[in-house]
């Protein structure tokens, strides 16, 4: 696996990306670039995900510009590190809006998306949340939109499937005590109980926790049919490993953050039977995905960490390019107000990796939910919920 060292991370933070494939002459000929921001974790505990998501966006910018950009104008992506930390996210977005003067920026991680929303609304700059899943994101203001379905889509679908199809009548829920964990766990509990199930244990753990024995002993005493974890890629393997050590052999589920080969690598046979969600089409659903995965294998010698998220982040620049194209067609200046107008006017977008995107008036989007399970050390399709 390729990791970002300190020098490469600092290099990423210091550059703006127009195209890795165009010549200097092509840059010189471009009268102006079409700027947008990308605020993601390139360092810190979530860098494993963030670095791959940034790489996917870099590829997209290069691919768009290699085909002529937007009417001959090149996309310019300004990348800043948030470390998935709200305060660092605020600092990054302040720079994007007040120094770099971008009309639109992409970010993720629910706590960051929420923290920077007041800046987007105050400065009238379009904020696109690509990957965060807190349901509250739909209520953050006129200039905040998600292109990624929120937890009420995949987590609720998973909860209903667990009761109705898997026949699990009781469930325990463990969740990380942050925005994503608290809100996602509440949705799972509500939907599982509405379906007819009973939640027999409901245990939170700290964001910096490494020891989960206390909560797991409560889960063990409750003896549920199913255990759902609403956590992060950094803690889910630890929770499952300690669960197995305590003799808890129940099947485990989690949401799309668990669709990561790193979890299987860390857990080995303890990952067998794990159910995860995906909100992006797979190889059999979209031929572009197979090409995308092969690109990772050819260039990085591995598959991406969090494939569905990298698919959405690859599509992010394509969405921005469509917004700029609409501004060009309507001879409108590149402002946040006009970017928002473009988004809600066009509404329907066809994107290369995730397919159709319809932006709702309620600031939400909907997608099919793909369920996968770990079988013999591989994620394999389990079901599709539409």
UniProtKB/TrEMBL annotation:
Residues 33-377 form the Leucine-binding protein domain. Gene3D superfamilies: 3.40.50.2300. InterPro entries: BCAA_transport, Leu-bd, Leu_Ile_Val-bd, Peripla_BP_I. Transmembrane segments: none annotated. Residues 1-28 form the signal peptide. GO terms for biological process: amino acid transport. Keywords: Amino-acid transport, Signal, Transport. Belongs to the leucine-binding protein family. This is Amino acid/amide ABC transporter substrate-binding protein (HAAT family). It comes from Jezberella montanilacus.
């Amino acid at each position: 696996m390729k990791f970002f060292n300190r020098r490469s991370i600092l290099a990423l933070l210091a550059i703006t990306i127009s195209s890795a494939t165009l010549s200097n002459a092509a840059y010189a000929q471009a009268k102006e670039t079409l700027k947008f921001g990308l605020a993601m974790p390139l360092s810190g505990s979530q860098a494993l995900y963030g670095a791959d998501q940034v790489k996917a966006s870099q590829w997209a910018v290069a691919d768009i510009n290699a085909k002529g950009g937007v009417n001959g104008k090149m996309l310019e992506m300004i990348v800043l590190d948030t470390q998935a930390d709200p305060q660092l996210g605020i600092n990054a977005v302040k720079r994007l809006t007040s120094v770099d003067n971008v009309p639109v920026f992409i970010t993720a991680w629910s706590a960051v998306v929420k923290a920077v929303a007041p800046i987007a609304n105050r400065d009238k700059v379009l904020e696109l949340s690509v990957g965060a899943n807190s349901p509250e994101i739909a209520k953050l203001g006129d200039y905040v939109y998600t292109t990624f379905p929120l937890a009420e889509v995949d987590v609720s679908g998973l909860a209903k499937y667990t009761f109705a199809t898997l026949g699990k009548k009781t469930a325990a829920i463990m969740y990380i005590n942050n925005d994503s964990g608290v809100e996602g766990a509440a949705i799972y509990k509500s939907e599982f109980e509405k379906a007819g199930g009973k939640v027999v244990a409901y245990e939170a753990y700290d964001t910096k926790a490494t020891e989960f024995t206390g909560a797991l002993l409560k889960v063990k005493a409750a003896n549920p049919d199913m255990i759902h974890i609403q956590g992060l890629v950094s803690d889910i393997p630890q929770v499952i490993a300690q669960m197995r050590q305590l003799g808890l052999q129940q099947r485990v589920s989690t949401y799309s953050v668990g669709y990561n080969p790193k979890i299987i690598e860390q857990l080995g046979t303890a990952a067998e039977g794990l159910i995860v969600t995906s909100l992006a089409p797979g190889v059999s659903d979209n031929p572009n995905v197979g090409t995308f995965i092969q690109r990772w294998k050819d260039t990085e010698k591995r598959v991406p960490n969090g494939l569905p998220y990298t698919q959405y982040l690859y599509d992010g620049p394509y969405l921005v390019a469509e917004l700029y194209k609409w501004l060009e067609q309507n001879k409108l200046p590149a402002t946040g107000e006009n970017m928002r107008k473009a988004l809600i006017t066009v509404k329907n977008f066809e994107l290369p990796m995730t397919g159709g995107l319809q932006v709702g008036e309620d600031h939400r989007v909907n997608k099919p939910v793909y369920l996968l399970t770990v079988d013999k050390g591989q994620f394999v399709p389990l079901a599709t919920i539409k």
